[in-house]
Structure prediction request, 263 residues.
Amino acid sequence: MNPNPNKGYLDTAIYAAKVASDHIIKSSKRKIKTFKDKTDLLTDTDLASEELITNIIKNKYPDHNILAEESGLIDRHSSEYTWIIDPLDGTTNFVHNYPSYAVSIALIQKNEPIVGVVIEMPLMNIYYATINSAAYCNNKIIECSNTDKLILSLLVTGFSYNHNENWNLNIEYFKKFTDITQGVRRLGSAAIDLCHTAIGHVDGFWEFDLKPWDVAAGILIAKRAGANISKLNGDKYSIYDDEILVTNGLIHQDMIKVFKELK
Ligand code: IPD
Ligand code: CA
Ligand code: CA
Prediction:
């Protein structure tokens, strides 16, 4: 069997995510430092986590680009590799002690995620995948569910901080899918929503207005677990798009039909 060429990158991502999540879990001060927007919070822990992760990556791969939520882009120009980091996904949950938040680290090569690691806290579940491997949770292979009917499905979505037109439209989608499935959850961490689709806790996830750091790791994990990923109308998705649909594949077309009908 050929060794995984991305193993070194994966080990670095897992190590950095563990260092950051250990720090987050121990961090007792859950005070809001500032409001990035009306409901968009920032804490010292977001910043400390980002510094821990970026320092590990800069030391190990000084030539690689880094795109991190709080500090932006470090562009090394000559590199085709970019690390994409959400140091704390689900900050609102973290601040309120609601037990669902994550660290998300991905490596992309020419816009294609090749490594993805998400640590779900406070459970400390470690989800990961590379472009040439299965998806794992705590070192066990995971796969999407095999639910093939909307009426038997459990879904999850999220609502961005920006209460714009998409936010209003999503309320309509939320209502409709709540009516035609077994329910729609809203947990507050897109990285975890993607991993829960990968492991089959939910059958599908959609959201508007996510950023590359919310999704880059989670979509690779979901894809390697067998998920279908597209825009809500079925078009090809990139991490820079502002809408995403991720399902077990079996309910994908039925969900697209509903999005098209309500638009
Ligand atoms: C947020 C979470 C949430 C999603 C928001 C994101 P943050 O990330 O992923 O689930 O609905 O749109 O901004 O701000 O907690 O890193
Ligand atoms: Ca986020
Ligand atoms: Ca964040």
Residues 36 and 42 are 7 Å apart (CA to CA). The first helix runs from residue 7 to 26. The chain has seven helices and 15 strands.
